[in-house]
Every structure is written in structure tokens, then in C-alpha cells.
Amino acid sequence: MLNTLATFLLHWAIIALSLWVASHIFSGIRFESTSALVVSALLLGFANAIVKPVLILLTLPLTLLTFGLFLLVINALVLLLVAALVKGFKISGFWTALFASLFVSLLSIVFGALIGGGDPATTIQMPDNGNWL
Asked: In this structure, are residues 22 and 103 in contact, taking their beta carbons and an 8 Å threshold?
């Protein structure tokens, strides 16, 4: 159980660090306090785990039609949803959310690879039985 908790806290810290860096890179993203950043990272993790798969499923025809590019829009909408729910987290508009979601995703992958031992394969693993679904 401690290993699972440590993994959760590590992912939460990576998302928080990525959001913090994005707020310094993009002028349209602002956190009023550290607590807003921490709550945003937690809520973004939950939204990516719960809301995002539902949105992907509902928009599957559009995603297939655009060869997966609509997933970028879904990422931006999830980030805007988190900004709407967390007091003290502001995003100026859709385009800022789109580019910031790309940046946060890529930076999270880089931080995860660096912290996970430098090998991205350590964070991406096949299920035990070899089937994804």
C-alpha cells in the first residue's frame, strides 16, 4: 500500500511541478496561491483519470475523423474545467489552455522519465496478462 501511495504522491508532485513551470512560461496562466496550485494538480490528476476517458469515448468518431488531433482539444477542455473549478487558478482562454496542456503533458513525461530512473519504459508498462482491455 505504501508503494501505491508513494507512486500517487510522486505523480501528484510531477503534475504540480509541471503546472508551476507552465504558469511561468505562459502569461495567461496564473495561480493566486500555492494551495491553488496543489489543489489544481490533484484535481487535474483526477480529471485525467475519470473525466478524460469519458470525453474520449463520447467524442470517438470526431477523434477518429481528425486522426487523434481532437485529443488535444480534450486536454485543453480538461485543463479549462480544472481552472473553472479551482478558485485561484486562472487561464485566459482556450488557446492558452491548448498550448499549456501540451506543455504540461510533455513536461510531465520528461519529469517522470527523469525521476523514474531515466528510462521512459519504466513508466509505461503492459498489463500482466498482455491485454490492454
From this structure: yes
Q: Is 42 exposed, middle or buried (0-12, 13-18, 19+ CB in 10 A)?
A: middle
CA nearest neighbour of 20 among 47, 40, 2: 40
Q: How far apart are CA 9 and CA 12, in angstroms?
A: 5
For residue 79, give the nearest of 61, 99, 62 by alpha carbon.
Answer: 99
Block mean pLDDT (10 aa), the chain, length 133: 77 90 93 94 90 92 93 94 94 95 89 66 56 57
The pLDDT assigned to 129 comes to 65
Going 8 to 11 to 16 to 17, the CA torsion angle's sign is positive
DSSP string, 44-98: HHHHHHHHHHHHHHHTHHHHHHTTTTHHHHHHHHHHHHHHHHSTTEEE--HHHHH
**If you count them, how many residues does the chain have?**
133
Residue 132 C-alpha cell reads as 490492454
pLDDT on residue 118:
47
